[in-house]
Specification:
Shape: globular
Largest sheet: 10 strands, mixed
Helix content: 40-55%
CATH architecture of the largest domain: 3-Layer(aba) Sandwich
Structural class: alpha/beta
Number of helices: 12
Bound molecules: nicotinamide-adenine-dinucleotide
Number of strands: 12
CATH topology of the largest domain: Isopropylmalate Dehydrogenase
Order of helices and strands: EHEHHEHEHEEEHEHEHEHEEHHH
CATH superfamily of the largest domain: Isopropylmalate Dehydrogenase
Length: about 350
């Protein structure tokens, strides 16, 4: 197992350090894991004038998986667009064809009160949103703004090829197979032809996965159902734009941005694993960051790239054990309580994993 470690900026290095602590426990148990670090984002720009240096890209291409902290910060906001730290993420997705973005929204029983929704609506929630990353209205041509004031016209093109739709739907079905075997495909077929094609292809593929119950839902209804009764969902698969919006909505069901992992996969199981949050410059370097999203991203790596459910579930169990001990970083701590530091949380998860 070769893993590229790209810490990035802000809290990236602090949270990745805690994930490496977990890897060290696994190494101690005899697991053969090779890791190598490389610069990315603002840190890479500072050192090499490029947020995604060729050496970093080369390492990623040679690795089975990437653990990615976060990139960005106010210091870089005035740079030209192609030099900005965030460009590194887009570059990695494109160069490695990471087309399937997986975002779980899981509510740990200990944190059911952290959501803005009532605990009885969200407790036990465990949804996976699979979002297509390479097509749709974000990339379609033609696009632009034409004409003169006051009659300018803005236009974008929703565009999906059949192979793009097929591969993301297959990802959705396979992930559903590994979970609760329910797949909800989200579209807007009542007004958009592109998504009628999406629905037709989903129906064509469905017989290949007879154990998965496929359903369809219009995106506006899905947005509503996610807050009305989110536990009805197991896996949701959808296009780039709908997935962008629905995955942010679903992530907030859980209450804390510091808890949410993600994966971006290619067609061969290689993946980039990162927390959904950014580099949190406001708390960087203070030991306040919650490392659990990063650690849970690593659990996803064992599940989806290395196919090792035992380790993935073991890490998730260790996270739950740390929470059950009452440990809370500042973002999830109750008011007036003394929060744990990033390192204390990481150490508690590592200790729990070791003892099991
Ligand atoms: P952010 O996610 O970094 O922070 C939003 C808020 O959540 C902040 O108050 C922060 O302190 C808090 N927070 C985030 N992660 C936390 C954690 N693990 N523990 C505790 N609190 C946490 O979003 P932002 O402030 O809008 O963006 C900051 C920088 O990150 C920007 O430069 C942005 O472009 C970049 N960004 C990077 C990524 C990425 O690397 N994938 C994603 C989003 C934003």
């Amino acid at each position: 197992m070769k893993i590229a470690l790209l810490a990035g900026d802000g809290i990236g290095p602090e949270i990745l350090r805690e994930a490496v602590r977990i890897l060290d426990v696994l190494r101690g148990e005899g697991l053969k894991i090779e890791t190598e670090e490389a610069l990315v984002g603002g840190a890479a720009y500072d050192a090499h004038g490029d947020p995604l240096p060729a050496k970093t890209l080369e390492l990623v291409k040679q690795s089975d998986a990437v653990l990615f902290g976060a990139v960005g910060g106010p210091k870089y906001d005035t740079l030209a667009r192609d030099k900005r730290p965030e460009k590194a993420i887009l570059g990695l997705r494109k160069e490695c064809d990471f087309f399937a973005n997986l975002r779980p929204a899981t509510v740990f029983p200990e944190l059911a009160d952290a959501s803005t929704l009532k605990p009885e609506v969200v407790s036990g929630l465990d949804i996976m949103i699979v979002r297509e990353l390479t097509g749709d209205i974000y990339f379609g041509q033609p696009r632009g703004v034409t004409g003169e004031k006051p009659n300018r016209v803005g236009f974008n093109t929703m565009h999906y090829t059949e192979p793009q739709i097929r591969r993301i739907l297959h990802s959705g079905f396979r992930i559903a197979m590994a979970r609760g075997r329910k797949l909800c495909s989200v579209d807007k077929m009542n007004v958009l032809e592109t998504t009628q094609l999406w629905r037709d292809i989903a129906e064509e593929i469905a017989p290949e996965y007879p154990e998965v119950a496929l359903s369809h839902m219009l995106v506006d209804n899905c947005a509503m159902q996610l807050v009305r009764n989110p536990r009805q969902f197991d896996v949701i698969v959808t296009g780039n734009m709908f997935g962008d919006i629905l995955s942010d909505e679903a992530s907030m069901l859980t209450g804390s941005i510091g808890m949410l992992p993600s994966a971006s996969l290619d067609g061969n199981g290689k993946g980039l694993y990162e927390p959904i949050h950014g580099s949190a410059p406001d708390i960087a370097g203070q030991g306040k960051a919650n490392p659990l999203a990063m650690i849970l991203s690593m659990a996803m790596m064992f599940r989806y790239t290395f196919g090792n459910e035992e380790i993935a579930a073991g890490i998730e169990k260790a996270v739950r054990a740390a929470l059950a001990q009452g440990l809370r970083t500042a973002d999830i701590a109750a008011q007036g309580t003394r929060p744990a530091s990033t390192a204390q949380m990481g150490a508690a998860v590592a200790a729990s994993l070791q003892s099991h």
